[in-house]
Write a structure and sequence with these properties.
The chain is α/β, with parallel strands linked by helices. It has helices spanning 2-7, 15-60, 80-95, 111-116, 134-138, 155-162, 165-170, 191-205, 248-268; strands at 68-74, 98-104, 141-149, 152-153, 177-184, 208-209, 235-237. The structure holds flavin mononucleotide (FMN).
């Protein structure tokens, strides 16, 4: 008691009085250290979280420098589809992120039938052989072009699809992007039904169909002049005798498909 009166517990002389205060100080110090440790822990966890988020953001953002392999595979008898194919290629080229190869599918008609049809010589683009089928497996995207035959895709393109059974079996084309363009002789001749017959080919092969939708713009709604193409893709009318050539609208739409496909392929990967 005497020591209590003489000291008030502030000088640390008396064990009796000093102990609770020292304990409190020690407790305070310990709590302070704990707090500091916790704050450090939280800070380092925040830094770690931010770094992870930054990494995830970078991974999710499309790699602007990445290049994509795109094949354009077409069949033409009179050259309309070849014209559209070149324009689709131009559109892809303008995007600047695609390496493009243009191929024809093998002809299935005998020479004498082609002669009867009045078919001009074939374009110079190489024919995609069976040995080159691995190009499809290596591609990021494939765009097919074909004229209609009796409202459905032409037999040459169908035969080509039929020859891909070995890739289908291995699932080599699953998840790749694909689009198409088409031509018909007349307005009611199959602009839409031909597209429909192509969709089933893509579906079975596991190809992801990229329709152009209405991305080409408001002219798609115009009745000013007849034009091929639809939300399924660009198209042209050859005319009953094949003399009509792709119109400016149809040509621009074909180029648009190339540009649009390049955008989608970048966004997709
Ligand atoms: C055997 C045969 C069947 C055809 N069937 C259709 C048809 O059903 N509807 C149509 O609009 N045009 C039809 N056409 C016209 C072609 O679609 C037209 O010639 C083609 O679209 C032109 O494209 P190309 O110049 O690239 O060969 C047919 C042509 C041939 C030779």
């Amino acid at each position: 008691m005497s020591s209590l009166l003489s000291c008030f517990g502030c000088c640390g002389d008396s064990e009796e009085i000093n102990t609770p205060s020292a304990n409190r100080n020690a407790e305070r110090e310990a709590a302070g250290t704990k707090n500091e440790q916790q704050q450090k822990k939280v800070a380092s966890a925040t830094v770690e979280k931010e770094a992870t988020l930054e990494k995830q953001k970078k991974e999710a953002a499309p790699d602007q420098s990445r290049r994509f392999k795109v094949l354009i595979i077409y069949y033409t008898t009179y050259g309309h589809i070849k014209k559209l194919a070149d324009l689709v290629k131009e559109g892809l080229e303008k995007s600047g992120n695609c390496d493009i190869e243009l191929f024809q599918v093998p002809e299935t008609l005998p020479e004498e039938v082609l002669k009867l049809l009045g078919a001009p010589p074939k374009p110079e683009d190489p024919i995609l052989t069976f040995e080159q089928h691995n190009k499809l497996a290596e591609a990021d995207g494939i765009i097919f072009g074909f004229p209609t035959r009796f409202g459905a895709i032409c037999a040459q393109m169908k035969a080509f699809f039929d020859s891909l059974g070995h890739l289908w079996q291995k699932g080599s084309l699953n998840g790749k992007l694909a689009s198409f363009f088409f031509s018909t002789g007349t307005q009611g001749g199959g602009q839409e039904t031909t597209a429909w017959t192509a969709i089933s080919q893509l579906a079975h092969l596991g190809l992801l169909y990229v329709p152009s939708g209405y991305t080409f713009g408001s002219e798609m709604f115009s009745f000013e002049e007849p034009h091929g193409g639809s939300p399924y893709g660009p198209g042209t009318f050859a005319g009953a005798d094949g003399s009509r050539q792709p119109s400016p609208y149809e040509m621009q739409y074909a180029e648009h498909l190339g540009k649009y496909f390049a955008t989608v392929i970048r966004r997709f990967h």
